[in-house]
Tetratricopeptide repeat protein (Phreatobacter aquaticus), 387 residues
Amino acid sequence: MSEAERAKELFLAGLDQLDRRQFAEAERQFRAALELAPGRASIRTNLAVVLADQGKNREALDIARDLVAEDPSNDEALLVAAKAASDADEPDEALRLWKIVLERDIDRIRAHFGIAAAYRQKGQTVEALAAYERVLRLQPDHLHAAINRGNILFEQEKFAQALELYRRAAASNPGSALAWIAVGNARLRLAQQLRAGRKPAPGEPDQADLSLQAYKRALSIDRNAADAWQGAGFAQLAAGAAAEALRSFDQALALGPHSAALLAGKSCALFDLGRAREALVPGLKAVELDPNEPGGWTSLGNIQCDTGQAAEALVSQDRALALDPSLRDAWNGRGNALRNLQRPREAIAAYDRALALDPDFAVARDNRASTLLDLGDEAVTPSGPAH
């Protein structure tokens, strides 16, 4: 067998492994073929494909870029280079390449999607939203365009608009656990907005219950979807079902990496079940993993206050407020810590800040009233903050 014939045999074996998604073996076959037929464009193109499929994006990009430079008409290499640039976190290069793909009319849907992703990497959300919309005009049931467009709106806290897109994705792709998880996430955030003081619109459904239904739908599709278990846990917490929430969080912890949000959720569930000392462990781990999440510090501070660690609780609530001074729960928690430290006047000032943020915050109002009774001092009036 000649070297050319052997190279062809290895190349075909690599294509077979690529079809079987055996990427490491396909890479081995393509590299062996290249040793016998160096420079062969078809082998190099498929090697770039299989490298990108394994996350070896920079090598894939280098090979594909060389191929395009040698033969600008190599559309497959251009597509590989554009995708590899996106995955290698080179959005400027990705944008340049995807625009060439679009100009050549090779794959308009894929090009617009790649352009959207590049703009999103660059932080140009207006342009990204427009590009995802162009994808959806060309293919209304495009799952990832709808979800990614919704994710940008979600990050902008436009939860109702995000929900509309997620519902569209789920309606077009009812077998997608990802779409149902996204629906659940948006509904849960709408429920949390209500809890934080936003008034429900007339006839507005129970978003916490609907979010749980969405997560359960996702789990009926994929029982190993850790994000669905985590979301279900938070929905159950919102509904006051702490025992069920704890089971959901434990399922998520058994399936995937231990994120700060997941550990904070488990901590809250244990706390709600009256197991405050157990709650300290995941609570501390949560703020260690993500010290820039104010909600984790607020939850930890509440637990520390309940377990007799008022000084530590005050530090935690102050960490939360340094990150986000608009957290009514952190101001309330700060008041509780100060009250336990026998600093009632400062506690009342903290409760006042909570009530200034949410005049209907009954817990803070009750805490303020109780602190006034403890103080027994008419110098601090119980009139509450100005609205």
About this structure: The mean pLDDT is 92. The domain at 1-88 is CATH 1.25.40.10 (Serine Threonine Protein Phosphatase 5, Tetratricopeptide repeat). The chain is about 75% helix and 0% strand. The radius of gyration is 27 Å.
